[in-house]
Amino acid sequence: MRRRNLMTVLAGAAAYPLLAGAQQKAMPAVGYLHFASPGPFAPFVAAFRQGLSETGFVEGQSVAIEYRRAEGRYDRLSALAADLVSQKVDVIVAASPPSARAAKSATSTIPIVFSSADPIGEGLVSSLARPGGNLTGVSILTAELMPKRLELLSELVPEAKVIALLVNPDNPNTEPMIRDMLWA
Q1: Alpha-carbon Rg of the chain, whole angstroms?
Q2: Which is higher by pLDDT, 49 or 127?
């Protein structure tokens, strides 16, 4: 799935509760929670805004977006999620699994939309078919595809003796990813 399509789906899912006829403010508010600074993820935010506008929500005109970014400090996510809840946003877009976990801990009533490699393994939902609770989103199967990517790389460059895997040691998904790659 292309990045733009993914963001369109997320934007539509984020806007759905607003369109469903729930009691609304004059201008609905979307909370956007992310673990990183905006720079490297600017294309994703632009795609998110584009997806919202394609469903009739234009930032500043028909929807307010409250951005909260942890600037790479995962320990700030809980406070940022709690701040969005206190702002009474209509939906929270959790732009990373750690953001989704923080949002899930902060509220059981505000809808949360996430994108995740393994939402069941990360404790976000109980099943893909029936996620339950106030969380919904998409699974992008990144971790499941890592061993296949290693296999393809080995076939493309058979003379490679060592292949390095660069990871963020602060990311909670790092350990399972390394484990999966070692057994590939």
Answers
A1: 18
A2: 49
